[in-house]
Amino acid sequence: MPVNYPSEFQGFAITDPKDWANPKLTSFQPKNFEAHDVDIEVECCGICASELFSLKNEWSDAPLKCLSSAYGPKSQVVGHEVVGKVVAVGSDVTLCKVGDRVGLGAQCFSCMECPRCKSGNEQYCPKAVGTYCAKYADGYVSQGGYASHVRAHEHFCFPIPAGLPSELVAPLQCGGLTVYSPIKRNIQGVKDPKVAVIGIGGLGHMAIMISKALGAEVTAISRGYSKKEDATKMGAHHFIATSEEGWENGLADTFDLILNCASSTTALDLDKLLPCLKVNKNFVSVGLPHIGEVFNVRPFTFFSNGCCIGSSKLGNREEIIELMKLAVEHNFRPWVETIKVSEAGVSEGLTRLDKGDVRYRFTLTGFHEFFGTGK
Amino acid sequence: MPVNYPSEFQGFAITDPKDWANPKLTSFQPKNFEAHDVDIEVECCGICASELFSLKNEWSDAPLKCLSSAYGPKSQVVGHEVVGKVVAVGSDVTLCKVGDRVGLGAQCFSCMECPRCKSGNEQYCPKAVGTYCAKYADGYVSQGGYASHVRAHEHFCFPIPAGLPSELVAPLQCGGLTVYSPIKRNIQGVKDPKVAVIGIGGLGHMAIMISKALGAEVTAISRGYSKKEDATKMGAHHFIATSEEGWENGLADTFDLILNCASSTTALDLDKLLPCLKVNKNFVSVGLPHIGEVFNVRPFTFFSNGCCIGSSKLGNREEIIELMKLAVEHNFRPWVETIKVSEAGVSEGLTRLDKGDVRYRFTLTGFHEFFGTGK
């Protein structure tokens, strides 16, 4: 079926979390077009682990939000590592123009007026709206990028430097930014920084490349040795397998940042990991667990070095633009396997990601051919 | 019995944690006198909650360390908020001289050679020795300041400015420094900082005064309203009782630091407290719980602001000297109730502190009269 744009978009949607692995092609009404909105005709879209949590509805105790959307579809399209072409801009848009190639990550709106928006922390704006599964002030529930088009506030449509292939720059929009922001914020101004990256997967493999590009000495930490060769190719200077007894010996007082990119923290031995930090440094989790999971760590564990633990969410516009520039200057690219978009392709990507069968990131491609767009 | 100094010190000691509330007067051998050691003739000594944990042996799963001391007593004297006069200095001592009034806090030794010692973080030196209950490299287990004398490395004997009464400056040596260091480190360079202090007790009441002196707008957080008037007198600009339903309303994105001075974290609702922090700021615990207690908090809780939680231990020499100068310049003093030292006095102080019957800090005084020193 041809896309009836701009009154309708097409995308791959579910209506029940039980069907998370089999989104179906559907047409749906986009949100109302506002003065700062931009329509992106999607060229490709990365597959992020967030999609699994969202489609399975594991980050919420309530029913899927789309079921109570004030207007638009009662079904849910995900996808928030979008690359595409601007095809329409609202009356007040100044940050991009029709024809630009832009990226869109996991956030599509913030208020632009609160202290957080005004201080480069729009990702923590209380009125922030995620690119999918999130309710706008007008009651519409956002629809993501496994679609012909996606609509977003201009602030979250990022200019992509020439020379970066779309399918490789897609994973930077969410996963890349998610690791770039805490790495930069934690090692900025540190002389000869040392960064440990736990979990060599979709997030971790970008964290290694980014840390190295930012000048850090990088230690990759994995359970076993299966990813050692890859980690070295990504740029890790050291590799540690925590299955090895005594792995922590000699690592006390070493790191300026430990970035946890594993999706769960419960499997981690924080009593061994935290003492590897230098004094007053941070252990930051970006891999998102089930909503009920807890950090299980004793206040006493922190006394060896006065360290802290926490989590970090996405990053700001300036940071994603910096990150893409860094990728050009240091010539690193996410390791991407592409899958042609279709119901079968989306299903394959989600199912294989759920099994961990990806090294290290999927990008869905071929949107123009599938949706008959790109003309 | 007269003190047989310098071959013996006298102090109030226990041999069994069951007797924690009734230390007995005893004579004991001090550690061997090294080139950087200083002997302090004690004038007065604060009572810190650490003493309760140590005497009850609640910070350890092993028997009292003194029972395996390589030499010296098989009994334990506590006390680590000491003020007294230098009566002997080792051959290499340059930081103080006989006759000086000095303070000694919870640490009596560090290696002076490791990266932490060389970067103003000697409190996190892997070879640090606590003022009591801690084993020196030579196997001696340190003995504290409920005593006629105490022996410590010169680096931890701090010059006390004239004009600060000894019984009021004693609580600064451990408790004061413990809150000063994280307050300073977390609000340094922040414009118009806002600090929340949880727990208006021995640590918290000093944290309020110190935060205010450092230029912060201070919010005192307590369970009920019983300490509201006191908190205001200490300098708190705002007061919150968490027994009040909806206490957290309007506090999102407010604080640059939440300092937890309560001795337990399990009673705290971190899901409500952490969102009160500004972006990327810290919740720091200094009140020490039972060794088995855990932080129970979800990674998701941190996503509203990218905050972190952790603990902080003591502070460095420079910080305690700064703190005492600040107390002079801003004319604040800990709120102290004095108790004359004796077996009965020590027992009264420990027992009342255990019940929380103190506003807000005890200092044991009258050491000269009791031990026949000070001549």
TrEMBL record, chains A, B:
MF terms in GO: oxidoreductase activity, acting on the CH-OH group of donors, NAD or NADP as acceptor; zinc ion binding
Domain (Enoyl reductase (ER)): residue spans on this chain: 18-364
One Pfam family from the record: ADH_N
InterPro entries: ADH-like_C (IPR013149), ADH-like_N (IPR013154), ADH_Zn_CS (IPR002328), CAD-like (IPR047109), ER (IPR020843), GroES-like_sf (IPR011032), NAD(P)-bd_dom_sf (IPR036291)
Keywords in alphabetical order: Metal-binding, Oxidoreductase, Zinc
The keyword DNA-binding appears for this protein: no
Names of the cofactor(s): Zn(2+)
Signal peptide: none
Domain of life (superkingdom): Eukaryota
Family, per entry: Belongs to the zinc-containing alcohol dehydrogenase family.
Protein name per its UniProtKB record: LAFE_0D03004g1_1
